[in-house]
Amino acid sequence: MGKTLFGKVLVIFVAVLVVCFSVTAVLLGIGLKNMSADQKAEQLLIVGEKTEQALDYFLRQMNGFTDAKLFTNYLESLAENSGSAIWVARTDGYIIFYCNTPASVLNNLEENSQGWYILPEEWEYPPSGYGFNYESGDFYGLFRDTGEEWVTVSRPFSISGIPPFGLTAEGVILVHSKLPTMQNTKYSIPRIFVISGGIGSLVAFLLVFILTRRLVRPLTEMRLAARSIAAGDFSKRIAIRGEDEIAELSRSFNFMVDALENLENTRREFLSNISHELRTPMTTIKGFIDGILDGVIPPENQNTYLSIVRDEVRRMEKLVNDILDLARLQAGDSKLNMTVFDINETVRRCVISLQQMFIRKNLEFTAEFETERLFVRADADAIQRVLLNLLHNAVKFTPEGGNIIVRTSSNHDTVQVEVEDNGPGIPKDELPHVFERFYKADKSRGLDKTGVGLGLAIVRNIILSHHETIRAESEEGRGAKFIFTLRKADAPEKYMLE
């Protein structure tokens, strides 16, 4: 049981209860013992005061044996009524009066040749000062044979002016009393705590059972769901109950399963798409090469078909390079060469490199720059690739005679670049997926015959590697707009001198 969560919580819970009950029992026992001893000492103090008063009267009125006998009878009556043993001792330790003392105690006292009991030498009486002192126990072992605990009150006295010579009598009055109630309490307190501890442990067991069942249920569900996920079944989800940490863990687990399911779907789609993109040119290449080798294609047409084969090989090469570039960007292996450059000038160069494509489709290009020069801090080659991809994408989907616009503007420490076309646009439900690998909004591939759906994924990862943002806006039938941001920079010194 100790290996399970329920067993561990139960053991800890019961251990805490046992420790708490044990400490409380010990402290309560000590407290009750001290309280009982204090109360008994107060009672014995009154007995000591009455003994001193009687002793004072006896010494001042002493008249032979009769008065001594009366004093002894009074002490015996007082001791009997108070349930105590009374000793009157001189300063040299000799006990001159005693009454109601157990025989076992008298046997522990020293006795001289005259039959006087004397206290051991190490206890000198009276104690220094006046007042009273008390202690509990066996009074230095004298009461050890009684088998009970005793409280002893010591009250020093000094009676002066004793007639007929004005003598002074000094000594100490010792009043002893056993405490049978304390002995009972010693055993009753643990018994009470054992019973209450047992009841508390039973209640703890029920509470721990309810608590751990609530804790373990979602964990068990997660364990079973994890096994299903490992087997390829992503349909399992954890029921969320409440708003505590377990509910948050369940919510996070479900989110993780969703992410894993999306990742698995993306992986399968990736493999499917890349297989398709590679199979098509490979089939074309194989067919043309077989036709040349078999003589089906006449020699005068071979150069034409070899040119097609070369184009297909270039297409496959571009696909592989794009996949490798995307993998490096996603893994963070691609290091950026951060420099300060004019983003407007980069736009101009990109448009010039695609000039033939613009001319072929009779497209109109418009540049809307906020200022003549606008400097950013970024990797110039990477951003040029972003612009080329976005412009190439715009040219591809803009109809003949259409218009493409590039805008640059600044806002505080950020530069915003927009590439807009007036093509067919992107459907609303497909807009969130345009930056995914191998995704094509044109499912029929009627418009996009050359792309493989990696361009926008590469664009997105380049911008994210700069810790900037990129988004797409579009209305179906009214064109599309791609917007990304870059970090604004001050003009380099060579431009400041112009």
UniProtKB/TrEMBL annotation:
One of its GO terms (molecular function) is ATP binding. The chain crosses the membrane at residues 6-30, 192-212. Gene3D superfamilies: 1.10.287.130, 6.10.340.10, Histidine kinase-like ATPase, C-terminal domain. Keywords: ATP-binding, Cell membrane, Kinase, Membrane, Nucleotide-binding, Phosphoprotein, Transferase, Transmembrane, Transmembrane helix, Two-component regulatory system. It catalyses: ATP + protein L-histidine = ADP + protein N-phospho-L-histidine. It is an enzyme of class 2 (transferase). Its EC number is 2.7.13.3. GO terms for cellular component: plasma membrane. Its main location: membrane. Residues 273-490 form the Histidine kinase domain. It is a multi-pass membrane protein. The keyword ATP-binding applies. PANTHER family: SENSOR HISTIDINE KINASE CPXA (PTHR45528). This is histidine kinase. It comes from Thermoclostridium caenicola.
